[in-house]
UniProtKB/TrEMBL annotation:
<keyword id="KW-0560">Oxidoreductase</keyword>
<dbReference type="Pfam" id="PF00903">
    <property type="entry name" value="Glyoxalase"/>
</dbReference>
<dbReference type="InterPro" id="IPR029068">
    <property type="entry name" value="Glyas_Bleomycin-R_OHBP_Dase"/>
</dbReference>
<feature type="domain" description="Glyoxalase/fosfomycin resistance/dioxygenase">
    <location>
        <begin position="6"/>
        <end position="123"/>
    </location>
</feature>
<dbReference type="GO" id="GO:0051213">
    <property type="term" value="F:dioxygenase activity"/>
</dbReference>
<protein>
    <submittedName>
        <fullName>Extradiol dioxygenase</fullName>
    </submittedName>
</protein>
<keyword id="KW-0223">Dioxygenase</keyword>
<dbReference type="InterPro" id="IPR004360">
    <property type="entry name" value="Glyas_Fos-R_dOase_dom"/>
</dbReference>
């Protein structure tokens, strides 16, 4: 039985990435924080940030340049529009980039996309399920 989802991402500077994610509101995990890794918690999931050399050592493959291409879009939801707005503000203060300011989409979604220091793309959304169209 599968128990947890862990995302593993390569980063150029673990300390800078650790600082970035804590500044935007993520919590550090109680384990996995070393010189070559940072472990952050988003909701019930763990995101492991490894320096590129350590990451390459266990994937046995080259690391894509996430500044030039998007390998995936990592989405997480928040509890309110105000929380999305706060994260957007903190992303910019921490040195990240946003594709747009938080905005309403499709009448029931509110959020924005940002890039972290290494160019990984993240999608922050508030979902008002009561306004979600019936499919």
């Amino acid at each position: 039985m599968m128990k947890q989802l862990w995302l593993n991402l390569p980063v150029k500077d673990v300390n800078q990435s650790r600082a970035f994610f804590t500044q935007i509101g993520c919590q550090l995990n109680t384990h996995g924080n070393t010189e070559t890794s940072a472990s952050i918690v988003i909701g019930g999931s763990t995101v492991m940030l490894y320096d590129e050399k350590a990451f390459k050592s266990f994937v046995n493959n080259e690391v894509s340049d996430s500044q030039k291409c998007t390998e995936m879009l990592i989405s997480f939801d928040v509890e309110s529009k105000e929380e999305a707005d706060e994260i957007a503000k903190n992303v910019l203060l921490a040195g990240g980039r946003t594709a747009h300011q938080p905005k309403e989409m499709d009448g029931w979604l509110y959020g924005f996309v940002f890039s972290d220091l290494d160019g990984h793309r993240w999608n922050v959304v508030y979902m008002d399920i009561s306004k979600m169209p019936n499919n």
